[in-house]
Amino acid sequence: xxxxxxxxxxxxxxxxxxxxxxxxxxxxxxxxxxxxxxxxxxxxxxxxxxxxxxxxxxxxxxxxxxxxxxxxxxxxxxxxxxxxxxxxxxxxxxxxxxxxxxxxxxxxxxxxxxxxxxxxxxxxxxxxxxxxxxxxxxxxxxxxxxxxxxxxxxxxx
Length: 157
Fold this sequence. Notes:
Radius of gyration: 15 Å
Structural class: alpha+beta
Largest sheet: 4 strands, antiparallel
Shape: globular
Number of helices: 5
Helix content: 25-40%
Strand content: 15-25%
Distance between the termini: 32 Å
């Protein structure tokens, strides 16, 4: 599918150097609508919503923020989260008016292995826009990996 001309300003804000140095698209040249449709399709096919997953990430984010840059155990020790803050805010590239503080949240399993790395903005992008970032993006969240983490923590089939 060809990019919708109405999405061109969004695409520009998603590219490197506009809102973030690395951008949000990685090596993904698909139209934004196709990126969103593919990822939300994976989530919906499993019986979940992007809002559920975005809310789950926000819960991890808030818990991590409360740890003051220390690991915080969650879900009876199945995982731990840590939020490492940087100064400043970052605006949503979809120009919806949302801005988030800058941080990197890491999620580890009980053995200390990395499960996921995301930003507060990622929780919003997924919940509000169904956008998991483009393939090859530094902070792309694979919907299947997020679903597996959600199931580990929250249960659900």
